[in-house]
Design brief:
Number of strands: 2
Distance between the termini: 16 Å
Radius of gyration: 21 Å
Structural class: mainly alpha
Number of helices: 17
Shape: globular
Largest sheet: 2 strands, antiparallel
Helix content: 55-70%
Strand order of the largest sheet: 1-2
């Protein structure tokens, strides 16, 4: 889940030293707002560097610290920190900690402390998908319901938002055999999506297909066939060239998980990744773009940086692979970090060199088979 703080070079150097000092301490219990933010940033840095134990410790400390603050904004960051803690715990195989983090978030929701913010909404969706993939269906249901109750205040008529939360809720209800409830929720999701994106939108297809599964489970086979046929027509008439899809998406992407390979909830990311090999050439072409994007994680991404990240998702490569051979990393880090990536692409002709490296990969490395993404239908 994307962090919310913009971290400049000066703060990054200070943060690196804070992380080192905190890691060496026997106890690290933040209490002030500044310490809360530092712990959260330290968790993000540790997760980025695959130091999962350290990431879990920092995220948990940050979440508790933000919970103790009075403001709604702090409660929102607490939700995101708990969601990050849950994601790292899931990767580490600690299902009990995933449940713990979820219960803390649901408690904040029961107290009415969770603000209706876009980032909080996206983090809740990602957490719900993590729970769904781990087969913790009751908690996944509760988190999808919480996300749907918040809605997405920044959806600017895009068809994900509340409809996507209801779609996930419908999936979970169907998996629990609650067919009538699932049908009612999916019909509501479909109605919202038709209003927001029109009756001929490609984005109706995932809802129609899920509703078809419910109708089959209810024994209403003819209705299921009709829904599948309508979804197929919408998919066939979507018809935009991959280059156009990529160009539109790079200017609209606002949310991606902190770690590569995690479930995606941003519809523009899902749309590009669904194109697979068709999107590769367009993404490679856009690597040199310095146009600003709406996304940041540790630093503001250009559209070229987003193209690099999406290629890393498709080829399952670490984000920092172009600078893996750096012998003297920037700052006080023992290994290359995102600061080295920034130095690489912002050097003279750096983006062109990144493009050349990707062209070599595309020529010599087969694109891995796609992995089913539990979040792709949202």
């Amino acid at each position: 889940m994307a962090r919310r703080q913009r971290i400049g070079p000066g703060r990054t150097l200070a943060l690196a030293c804070v992380v080192t000092a905190c890691s060496a301490a026997t106890a690290c219990t933040p209490t002030t707002p500044g310490e809360c933010r530092a712990a959260n940033d330290a968790g993000s840095t540790a997760w980025y560097d695959d130091r999962l134990w350290s990431a879990r410790r920092h995220f948990r400390a940050a979440a508790k610290c933000f919970e103790a603050q009075e403001s709604a904004a702090s409660a929102g960051v607490a939700v995101s920190a708990w969601a990050d803690f849950a994601s790292v715990s899931r990767i580490s195989g600690r299902s009990g900690d995933v449940a713990l983090a979820t219960d803390r978030i649901l408690a904040l929701g029961a107290l009415g402390r969770i603000p209706a913010q876009r980032q909080v909404f996206q983090d809740l969706l990602t957490l719900a998908v993590v729970l769904e993939s781990g087969r913790d269906l009751p908690r996944a249901e509760a988190v999808f319901r919480l996300a749907a109750s918040l809605g997405d205040p920044a959806r600017d008529r895009s068809p994900g938002s509340t409809s996507g939360a209801l779609l996930g809720l419908g999936r979970v209800l169907l998996a629990q055999g609650r067919h009538d409830e699932a049908a009612a929720v999916l019909e509501r999701s479909l109605a919202i999506r038709e209003v927001e994106s029109g009756p001929l939108s490609y984005w109706l297809a995932p809802v129609l297909e899920e509703l078809a599964r419910v109708r089959r489970a209810q024994g209403r086979v003819d209705e299921a066939y009709a829904l599948v046929a309508r979804a197929a027509v919408l998919k066939a008439t979507e018809g935009k060239a991959a280059a156009q899809v990529v160009a539109e998406a790079l200017g609209q992407i606002g949310s991606m998980p902190a770690k590569l390979g995690q479930p995606q909830t941003d519809r523009h990311v899902i749309r590009v990744l669904a194109r697979g090999s068709e999107a590769v050439s367009a993404l490679v072409e856009r690597l040199v773009s310095t146009e600003p994007s709406r996304f940041f994680y540790m630093f503001p991404y250009t559209q070229g940086d987003l193209a690099h990240r999406l290629l890393c998702e498709l080829y399952r490569r670490p984000l920092l692979w172009p600078v893996a051979d750096v012998t003297e990393p920037v700052g006080c880090h023992p290994e290359p970090t995102f600061m080295d990536y920034g130095a690489f692409v912002n050097a003279p002709h750096g983006r062109e060199r990144l493009q050349e490296r990707w062209l070599e990969v595309v020529r010599t490395v087969p694109l891995p088979a796609p992995v089913a993404d539990a979040g792709a239908s949202g």
